[in-house]
Amino acid sequence: MTSFAALLPRPVSVTPAPGTCPWPSTVDVRAASLPPEGYRLEISPSGVVLHVADAAGEVYGRETLRQLAGPSAFRVAGFAPGELPCGVVEDHPRFAWRGCLLDVARHFRTKAEVLRFVDLLAAHKLNVLNLHLTDDQGWRFEVPEFPRLTSVGGWRPSSMAGSGGAQDGRPHGGFYTGDDLREIVAYAAERAVTVVPEIDIPGHARAALAAYPSLGAESSYEVWTAWGISTSLLSPNESTLDFFRRVFDHLLDIFPSPVIALGGDETPGATDDHREFVRRLAEHLVARGRTPMGWDEVLDIPGLPPMVIGSWRNEAAGLRAAEAGHDVVMCPEQHVYLDHRQAEHPDEPIPVGMLHTLEDVYAYEPALTGPRLRGVQAQVWTEHLDSVRRVDYMTFPRLSAFAEVAWSSGNRDYAEFLPRLRDHHLPRLDALGVEYRPLDGPYPWQTRPGVPGRPR
After folding, report:
1. Runs of H (alpha helix) within 54-205
2. Of 58, 63, 103, 135, which one is the catalytic site residue?
3. Which of 2, 57, 204, 351 could form a disulfide with 200 if both were Cys (CB 3.0 to 4.6 A apart)?
């Protein structure tokens, strides 16, 4: 049995009561007037009653029950139900958008690995998976009308090894069929996770250009094998616009998300025509009943329809977006980019980007407040994450800290959080098979090649 004090993210309130409750064969679920996604969990010696605001509230209430049952409840098999502490948990989220971006364009992750990632989001009461499906280094979304997007754009002959420019010489690729993505969407919905797809335009588009060079200004392109910012942009003409309207239309048939992301970031050499190109595709999404989402560079485009802006370059961009009448998801690289290094020590396997320690992530507080703030999002870009083990290492336990930022209201105390994470939540991650970064440094097999590393 686990105590209420071990719950993560921390609930709104807990009222312990005397006694224990055997693990129930059924849970009595009742509708109640509660905040969206909220629940009230009542545990008494006679049983468990779960009052919920909606289907998401039921998911989160059951997740809290699973935490109270102990780490064994997170194992796929072999779970022996035990006892639960008696009391009442009242809970609802701080933010409506509690997201995490997973980049499957730079390094492809299989459908099974994406489904596992969805499970990990749900276990942390996170509710948005921003799936980054296309980039210079790969196109991962099957469009039957344009098969070369995946047959050509889904593969590259090599990848940059690290950040020094050397190539590893290993082909890399993969893509999701429409059925794959429908399965991911349905699986996520059952766990109260919305999948927000992203097709990046007019930059980060070398994979599409390699498949269909007529979309650009040159006669031929290759899927990019380097990291960084490519200067290759889509040609902002009517035929390219029509092509991407059809691509997005197919995307909308698969993803029911109210929000659809179209990128718009890092476009060196972009002209007014490129900006108009983005605006017209955003208007197309609006006409199809969806809300477009773009990175904060799109704020420089005149005449944008109301959008969701991902404020990634700094906090000021989010404030500017709100002043312009857009909703905002705060995801600044200075605070919540989980591909950035976790310590200054040279044994870190991927010593890139800014330093974001576990404590740094836990301390993040968005500068924007008010009704324009939809919520917050952590980012897992994968240029340097070439396996699911690397994704685990860079994402956890920092995403566990971020989950409390996104869900829990009130002041946060890292000194209180750390033992709760170490003593109770890391065993849950162990039970889930997550190869997270140990709190005192990587295991030897998690370090960079040639670095001995330190024991936990």
Report:
1. 55-69, 111-123, 148-151, 178-190
2. 135
3. 204
- Does a structural domain hold residue 416? no
> Catalytic pick from 51, 92, 204, 335?
204
Q: Does residue 342 lie within any of the structural domains?
A: yes
What is the 8-class DSSP label of residue 112?
H
102 and 71 within one domain: no
- Pick from 64, 91, 118: which residue ends a domain? 91
Q: What is the pLDDT along the chain (456 residues), one digit of tens a residue?
A: 578 999 999 999 999 999 999 998 899 999 999 999 999 999 999 999 999 999 999 999 999 999 999 887 776 544 556 789 999 999 999 999 999 999 999 999 999 999 999 999 999 999 999 999 999 999 999 999 999 999 999 999 999 987 778 999 999 999 999 999 999 999 999 999 999 999 999 999 999 999 999 999 999 999 999 999 999 999 999 999 999 999 999 999 999 999 999 999 999 999 999 999 999 999 999 999 999 999 999 999 999 999 999 999 999 999 999 999 999 999 999 999 999 999 998 888 877 899 999 999 999 999 999 999 999 999 999 999 999 999 999 999 999 999 999 999 999 999 999 999 999 999 999 999 999 999 999 999 998 765 444 433
Let me know if residue 368 belongs to a domain. yes
Question: Which residue type is seen at 97?
Answer: W
Count up the domains in the chain and report the number: 2
H helix intervals, 109-237: 111-123, 148-151, 178-190, 206-211
Rounded Cα–Cα distance for residues 117 and 112 (Å): 9
**Which stretches does DSSP call E strand in 104-235?**
128-132, 134-135, 138-139, 155-156, 172-173, 194-201
135 catalytic, yes or no?
A: yes
Residue 30 in contact with residue 43, Cβ under 8 Å? no
The question of whether 204 is a catalytic residue gets the answer yes
CA-CA distance, 132 to 377, in Å (whole number)?
Answer: 13
CATH number reported for the structural domain that contains residue 231 in this entry: 3.20.20.80
